[in-house]
Amino acid sequence: MKTRLAVVGLLALTTWDLATAAPGTNPYYPKDVLEYWRRRYGRNLQWNFDKVVLPKLTGEERRVVSGVRLEFPLTAVDPKDPLNFYAVGKRIVVPILSIKFLDDLGIAFSWLQMKGYSPETVLNYLGMLKYRKPEDFPGATYPPPLEALHIPRNALQDPRVGSLSQNFLKSIMMFIICHELGHIYYRHPGYNVPREDSQANEMQADAFGLECMRRIGCAPLGVAVYFTAVTYLSPLRGDFANDRSWLAHLKGATHPCTERRLKALANAMRAHALGFVRLEPDPNLAAEVVRGVAAQIDELAEIIAKPEVQRAMANISRTRDVASLKPSAIGELTPSRTPANGQRRSNTSAPAFHGEYTGVFGPNRGQLVRIQTILIRRGDQVTGYYEYPLGKGRVSGFVQRASLFLDWHEGSSSGKALLKTRDGGRTFEGTWGNGTSRDGGGVWDGHRK
User: Fold this and answer.
1) For the segment 288-305, what is each residue's pLDDT rounded down to a tens digit?
2) Please, which contacts does 397-400 make with residues 24 or more away whose CB atoms are closer than 8 Å?
3) pTM value?
4) d(CA 153, CA 170)
């Protein structure tokens, strides 16, 4: 919610510095495109609200929310904000731009998944929207998801993509509308609310939204897509230099997306997994899918809890360009480069900490990604670089016996690492940290090719 408005909002923040957008531009979609989709989305959502949602409310709930209506403006208060749903009085405002943006994200995730591509490009795109200015993009405006992500125009001709993306959109919009209905039912104030009370209100509205979906028999498959966008677009602790500036931000943003809120959402999904899918042909199998969605939301909560991960995400977003958003295979990195002077050493003759290594890297053993590390050793001095699906950086350091003491640099972030070998350099394992620390950030392992 933009706190200057007396509204109750699902997304309660301006997600990036929208004041930098070029004046007079209409980002994402032309007006005629939004007009077209208003006719389609508006009729569909109104029918579902009248014929599916309202009949599932209790008599008391229907009495309290009597007279609620949906409104479908082309854009919300700020047309450059792609996520801006809110309720005010007995109106639930559902901007067409926001629906279209989430619909396209769902199509992108669906097509990439069905074609065996990595979803990381979607995350990079969201990060670029948050951290980059409009003039950094072609046409000096923010590009729509399908265009930026190079999703083919005929993507929906694959029935698997069409079915999955439809399920995403249906459940996203069902959750959002029922969440906002919860705010109205509980009569939540949306202005000048203490942060603690506001968080409790958001969690209560989340619970109301999920309960409505359980009654309807609508699996919350797309809720993870929605909160992925919220997480990657919202200000996080890692965006601020210190706790003081972060706390100052929180005083003016009463509805940040928090670890506590996401974990509560995930726990509720797990607790009622069978209830959401009781109408499916195989409820037990479908319930496992719901639990998988809950696990994805848990992962988002972990991101919110780790400022060092957020800073890495920011560095990646500031250095990538639109060309880097083309579909790539899961775990795909840039082509291997020759370690030194055009000469590739064999595994048996290369000294320790020299050559091309593949391995894993991440904040902990439960959240690892593939990493390619190129080390070039001259005497006891080592230089090189690394690359993983979310970013790349350079390293320098020195060898002391069976240990490599490294400094790493990635965008504006830097830190240290300590890598150790037990087999003469064929493999290494170690830890990395931020600033002057060599641990605390996560693990870093490698196996020489």
Assistant:
1) 999 999 988 998 998 898
2) 399/352, 399/353
3) 0.73
4) 21
Q: Are 215 and 241 in contact (CB under 8 A)?
A: no
Q: Strand, helix or coil at 188?
A: coil
Cβ distance 308 to 286 under 8 Å?
A: no
Sequence-distant (≥ 6) Cβ neighbours of residue 167 within 8 angstroms: 219, 221, 222
Whole-angstrom CA distances from 31 to 36, 73, 96, 232, 264 are 9, 11, 10, 26, 38
AA letter at 93? V
Interatomic CA distance for residues 206 and 204, integer angstroms = 5
Rounded Cα–Cα distance for residues 70 and 99 (Å): 13
Q: Rounded to an integer, what distance in angstroms lies between the CA atom of residue 228 and that of residue 226?
A: 5
3-state SS record for 113-150:
HHCCECCHHHHHHHHHHHHCCHHHCHHHCCCCHHHHCC
User: Which residue segments constitute the domains of the chain, with CATH numbers given?
Assistant: 8-325 (no CATH), 355-448 (2.40.128)
- What is the helix (H) or strand (E) element at residue 315, kind and residue range? helix 307-319
3-state secondary structure of 301: helix
What percent of the chain shows pLDDT beyond 70? 86
Mean pLDDT along residues 95-117: 94
Q: Would you state the structure tokens that stand for residue 258, as one six-digit string?
A: 């928090």
Which two tokens mark 86?
A: 């809110």
pLDDT at 71: 97
Among 14, 15, 10, which residue's Cα sits nearest to residue 87?
Answer: 10
3-state secondary structure of 62: helix
Q: Nearest to residue 287, comparing CAs of 216, 219, 239?
A: 219
Question: CA-CA distance, 11 to 8, in Å (whole number)?
Answer: 9
* Residue closest to 432 by CA, chosen among 405, 397, 393: 405
Burial class (CB within 10 angstroms; exposed 0-12, middle 13-18, buried 19+) of 59: exposed
Q: How far apart are CA 220 and CA 168, in angstroms?
A: 8
CA angle 132, 137, 138 (to 5 degrees): 175
Q: What is the DSSP pairing of strand 403-410 with strand 355-362? A: unpaired
Distance CA 361, CA 430 (A): 10
pLDDT confidence of residue 100: 97
Q: What is the DSSP string of 84-117?
A: --EEETTEEE--HHHHHHHHHHHHHHHHHHHTTB
DSSP code, position 154: T
pLDDT at 341 (0 to 100): 39
Strand partners for 430: 419, 444
